[in-house]
Specification:
single chain, about 300 residues, alpha/beta, TIM Barrel, 12 helices, 8 strands
Length: about 300
Amino acid sequence: MHHPVDAVMLSQRAASFTRRSLKADAKRTALRLAVSMVDLTTLEGADSPECARALCRRAIHPCPEPVTPAVPPVAAVCVYPRLVPVVREGLLGSAVKVASVSTAFPSGQSPLELRVQETAAAVAAGADEIDMVISRGAFLAGRLDDIRTEVMEVQDACQGAHLKIILETGELGTPDNIRRCADLVIDAATERGELRDGSVFVKTSTGKVSPAATMPSVLLLLESVRAHFRSTGLRLGVKPAGGIRKSKAALHLLVMVRETVGPDWLQPSLFRIGASSLLDDLVRQILWTSRGQYAAMHDVGVT
């Protein structure tokens, strides 16, 4: 039974997480944890194999100089399907996962048969994880069975690769729609059971539509995942993506995760942050804190 979302309360609660302050040791730990959760992403038409290889090197060694404790590798490198073999090779021997967008990203506007074939091809090429988009138009038109079908067919094509389901929250219009859509895709992806914790994620955005990963939209996904866990015992993942460029924003997200679904979710197997420039800022903040002095956010430029 779906209860309507109180949009005012949602906004107030989401904003409350931005007012927490982390003390020195907690901040140092949280910055490294955030690095370990990054899906380092490049999804531009000009992406080349050279660009993908450079991204892989950076994913494995995010920090240009040694610091103590060490900076961990990121969680995954996320690219278009064509670059999956390059990334697979570039990450060989590391723990970093190969992620591929799929299903006619970012619009999802191609026949389902082709979206399923594209997913299967990305997995065959070496993708460990698939970031799929749903047909937002179908959801908004009330064709909910279409959404269920596409999620289940793409999941079958994943052949065990982890599936992240992108709602494109900025196109869904209302908090109520976001929550209903999250519940719908979670039900579809878990209908047949026998899943492991973290094998399915709900993801806010492609990063190509604004607004993307707002605090209220991420909170709605966390609450949907929490409700599913309470009724089934299965832990699903959440991935905000799009517009997360500053360390401060990433730390706010970690606070929200801890206080909404609990500390069990504070690990890369259950929480990811899709980003490109965020890693620069996280590493810069880690270098500042490791030298015993802090940088105000406005003093730190983004490359």
